[in-house]
Design goal:
The protein is mainly alpha-helical.
């Protein structure tokens, strides 16, 4: 007769210092994702003039990013439950970073618009599961604090976007609005791959 073996309970978050590295990676990436939703607004006249596009067409640099997030946010959250939050999160960072590089190198408005839509898809991968990832990173006693800091970063990034864009445009080309994401995205990608834990998987079908 075999003795009954109960499943081992999941650890209550990560141990320090891994916990703080993982948390830092989450805060950096969600800040970048939210920041890029507003940072390009100030640069639209400059982008339109540089690429020879009309002001009405250049609006899609912003719309493409935001629509990609709105359309894919919930489906990606569902995929995270099925295939793992960590996979969706890291894939989102990789796509966001690669698309940011394409944005910085774009020589035409159509290329920039498509790259921004891809960047929005990557941002949706980040934003759809970042709060869920915190449940596996932080202890239950500190989860409320972590979510509060996460929300603070989101609000600060959304507010600071136009101001930061104005500062960058005063000293550099508009392409640096997107190029700055590349080193930060790579750092976050390495940190996330190293420190973010795996999550529980759901057996339900994708809906």
């Amino acid at each position: 007769m075999h003795a009954r073996t109960d499943p081992q309970p999941r650890p209550d978050g990560l141990d320090a210092p891994e916990r703080y590295w993982a948390w830092a990676a989450i805060l950096v990436t969600v800040t970048l994702a939210v920041l890029d939703g507003t940072i390009a607004i100030v640069a639209l006249p400059t982008i339109a003039a540089d690429l020879g596009a009309s002001p009405s067409a250049s609006v899609w640099v912003v719309n493409g990013y935001q629509l990609a997030i709105v359309v894919t946010l919930l489906p990606l959250a569902s995929l995270g439950e099925i295939h793992g939050y960590r996979r969706v999160y890291i894939a989102g960072i990789a796509l966001f970073t690669a698309a940011s590089l394409v944005c910085a190198l774009s020589a035409s408005l159509p290329v920039l618009t498509v790259a921004r839509a891809a960047q929005g898809l990557g941002a949706a991968g980040i934003m759809s599961v970042n709060s869920a990832m915190l449940r596996y990173v932080m202890p239950r006693a500190k989860l409320g604090t972590a979510i509060g800091f996460n929300s603070l970063c989101v609000a600060a990034a959304a507010t600071a976007g136009p101001t930061l864009a104005g500062l960058i445009l005063s000293v550099a080309d508009w392409r640096w609005l997107f190029a700055m994401n590349v080193p930060l995205g790579l750092v976050s990608l390495v940190m996330s791959a190293r420190y973010l834990p795996a999550s529980d998987l759901s057996k339900r079908r994708f809906d």
